[in-house]
Amino acid sequence: MLLPLQIGITGGIGSGKSVVCKLFSCLGIPVYNADSRAKWLTNHNLQIIKSVVALLGSDAYDAEGLYNTSYVSSLVFKNEDLLKKLNAIIHPVVMQDTADWVENHATSPYVVKEAAIMNKAGDRNALDFVVVVEAPLELRVSRILQRDKRSEDEIRAIVKRQVSDEERKKVADFFINNDEESALIPQVLKLHNIFKAGKISN
Ligand SMILES: CC(C)(COP(=O)(O)OP(=O)(O)OC[C@H]1O[C@@H](n2cnc3c(N)ncnc32)[C@H](O)[C@@H]1O)[C@@H](O)C(=O)NCCC(=O)NCCS
Ligand SMILES: Nc1ncnc2c1ncn2[C@@H]1O[C@H](COP(=O)(O)OP(=O)(O)OP(=O)(O)O)[C@@H](O)[C@H]1O
């Protein structure tokens, strides 16, 4: 089967991945959000549920049986080993789910996959190109303070568990500057025209 060009959009917490992906979506491009899809799967995939409970205990799900993200977040972002183990449970299922999703969008000129952690050097998965969304750390922290109910310490703990800006740069084919000085829409349109035409150059 002929698959569409697969573009990864990544960046640290608060960089603006979702905002950028909304712009691609407005242009008619299918977007796969790995964070939200992972959460859906963690609520519905029995193998994941069983393994998450074995790893983190039954409190990982609330009284209604829903994934208790604030509880899990409070455990794993403080503990690298636990986060690695949780990733090892969830990621293979998300990878397969992503591959199925791409096949279902085979007629699109290209598709976009949004994820915070696709971007370890050498870990490009099936991606043809990686776009890194960048913004200064302090701006990212202040955005999340406004968006979420997280404390500044929690946000900085997440940043610490994520791939560093330097690592991200190593796998980037393109950058989007989301520092609120440079306009986003022209940057997204430029990439859209490149990807749509299958013409790849910086
Ligand atoms: C830890 C969990 C419970 C936190 O959920 P919560 O709704 O509180 O926060 P949210 O999902 O918005 O994540 C907060 C920030 O952390 C980032 N993040 C999420 N998981 C990870 C991870 N495994 N490694 C690094 N950063 C991560 C997100 O991209 C976001 O920037 C949840 O994200 C989770 O189960 N993560 C592990 C699965 C995973 O890796 N998902 C990512 C896609 S495969
Ligand atoms: N250019 C911008 N101007 C104003 N607000 C912005 C801009 N970019 C992002 N934001 C705001 O900052 C917050 C974080 O952006 P967004 O959710 O897109 O980041 P993200 O990288 O997807 O974060 P996460 O990794 O947590 O999912 C959101 O509330 C968003 O509306």
CATH architecture descriptor of the largest domain: 3-Layer(aba) Sandwich
The Cα radius of gyration reads 17 Å
- The CATH C-level class name of the largest domain: Alpha Beta
Bound compounds, each kind once, are: dephospho coenzyme A, adenosine-5'-triphosphate
Principal-axis shape? globular
- Measured by DSSP, the beta-strand proportion falls in 5-15%
Q: Distance N terminus to C terminus? A: 28 Å
How much is the average pLDDT?
92
The number of helical segments is 9
Residues in helices, as a percent range = 40-55%
What do we call the CATH topology of the largest domain?
A: Rossmann fold
Largest sheet: 5 strands, parallel
Number of domain units:
2
SS-based structural class? alpha/beta
The CATH homologous superfamily name of the largest domain equals P-loop containing nucleotide triphosphate hydrolases
Q: Are there runs of 5+ residues with pLDDT below 50, and where?
A: 119-124
Could you state the order of secondary-structure elements as H and E? EHEHHHHEEHHHEH
Query: Tally of extended strands?
Result: 5
Strand order of the largest sheet: 2-3-1-4-5
